[in-house]
Design a protein that fits this description.
Rossmann fold, six-stranded mixed sheet, 12 helices, alpha/beta, Immunoglobulin-like
């Protein structure tokens, strides 16, 4: 081959290479590294027992290099056991302060207590404590003997007067159950319409006291009646006491709520239930919605307390998932532990949720878990509604409006992707609050909206 032929050939090849090379090399950019092994959590191993646990993400695929904010939904489920009724030891602690004389609240409390007495069975124990400026035992804790007439006469004597010494009322109620034992479920049920203003008033102190009772096997439940009660105090007390909290805006609903509380207590399956969530290395827990959570070592712990047959508890956590590496890994592992109500060794079961980091936008879009998404959205909106109600209580109307509108935005964002009737109902509630012009009635409605968010967890 002549030299000029070779030169021409090389020059032509170089020219073609200059044009084609960018096209050839563009699709072959270095891929991101795979997920490192420290991010992997071993698969969970279920254990035998009446309770089950499920852990899932609102979306189990996230875009590589994108926003890693996701929501972990932990669901605890107890099987239904219809027809089985456990004996109960219950002390009802009723607020008899002066404010209970308004809006028919003291009359509602009498009617609810009467109905509870009528539902007692052989083997149950019952006590009644009233509190205003001071607390007093109206019916001493004793085994139910069938004499409902005597109990009804005492209940008929409930009168409203004075301040609100909730601390002494709670303490006297627990004292009526202190000497009981056996297989009965033990509970203090507080009914109050106001804020503690005599004696101890700190929500933290009430929570610590209730948790002490729970450690002795006595759970604490609370019912907030009317519009002016301190829901933060009652909620934290009930959560720490392993019981339930209910908001009753209409006194006429009190009888139904107390009857349901008694029914749940007779169906108690587990005590001292706790959920411990451990996230993978690199994952950060931002917030836990609707529950009081504690950091214990490298775990986030939520005290769930008593669990009844047919009951479902949901815990929602906001987490930051690292998105800098492709692949699939476990995000969080949750362990549920509890004590059988009939005694015996502590039982446990666990489960894990996984996520995929991908460059496939279609995979991300299709990875929505509707049920988990609805649960997470309602929990988030409920917290914002609570903040709105708190702002109304503190006289900050501007903040109340801002928080409620933020709750509406959270609902609308999810509704654009998941059309769920629960979310539409929640959004309608917010519309009704805005229609009230953020008046006193709006404050009441905001509490109701906040309770709707808590309901999904209980």
């Amino acid at each position: 081959m002549e030299r000029w032929h070779l030169t021409l050939l090389l020059a032509t090849a170089a020219a073609i290479g200059a044009v084609v090379a960018p096209t050839l090399t563009a699709p072959f950019r270095p891929l991101p590294p795979p997920v490192p092994s420290p991010l992997v959590i071993p698969e969970a191993t279920p254990a035998d027992g009446p309770l089950s646990i499920d852990v899932r993400l609102d979306r189990d695929a996230v875009p590589y290099g994108g926003d890693g904010l996701r929501y972990v939904v932990v669901t605890v489920t107890a099987p239904a056991k219809e027809g089985e009724r456990r004996p109960v030891d219950i002390a009802v602690v009723v607020d008899t302060s002066g404010s209970m004389g308004r809006e028919g609240k003291i009359e509602a409390a009498r009617a609810a207590a009467d109905e509870l007495v009528d539902a007692l069975r052989e083997g149950d124990r019952f006590a009644l404590v009233g509190f205003d400026d001071r607390a007093r035992v109206l019916i001493e804790g004793a085994r139910f003997d069938g004499d409902t007439a005597r109990l009804h006469r005492v209940i008929a004597g409930l009168r409203d007067d004075g301040g609100t010494n909730l601390w002494d009322g709670l303490d006297l109620g627990e004292d009526q159950l202190a000497d009981t034992s056996g297989g009965a479920a033990r509970k203090v049920l507080v009914v109050s319409d106001g804020q503690a203003n005599v004696g101890e008033t700190s929500p933290d102190a009430f929570a610590k006291l209730a948790h002490t009772y729970a450690s002795r096997g006595v759970s604490v439940s609370a019912i907030g009646l009317g519009r002016d009660f301190n829901e933060n105090l009652l909620e934290s007390m009930a959560d720490a006491g392993g019981g339930s909290y209910r908001f009753v805006g209409n006194p006429e609903e009190l009888t139904t709520v107390i009857a349901a509380e008694l029914e749940r207590t007779t169906q108690t399956l587990a005590r001292q239930a706790r959920v411990k969530v451990r996230v993978a290395e690199g994952v950060r827990v931002r917030e836990v919605y609707g529950w009081t959570a504690a950091r214990v070592g490298d775990e986030t712990e939520v005290y769930v307390g008593d669990i009844s047959a047919g009951q479902t508890r949901k815990i929602v956590l906001a987490v930051d998932v690292p998105t800098g590496s492709l692949g699939e890994y476990a995000v969080a592992r949750a362990e549920l532990t509890w004590e059988p109500v009939d005694g015996g060794a502590t039982q446990a079961v666990d489960a894990a949720a996984r996520v995929t980091v991908t460059t496939d936008a279609a995979e991300v879009s299709a990875s929505v878990d509707p049920a988990a998404t609805v649960a997470a959205t309602r929990a988030r909106a409920g917290v914002l509604s609570r903040a709105s109600a708190d702002a109304w209580r503190d006289g900050d109307g501007a903040r109340a409006r801002t928080m409620m509108r933020s709750a509406a935005s959270v609902l609308e964002e999810t509704l654009a992707e998941v059309d769920a009737p629960e979310l539409r109902a929640d959004r309608k509630t917010i519309d009704s609050i805005e229609a009230l012009g953020y008046s006193e009635g709006a404050s009441y409605a905001a509490k109701a909206a906040s309770e709707a968010g808590r309901d999904l967890s209980r």
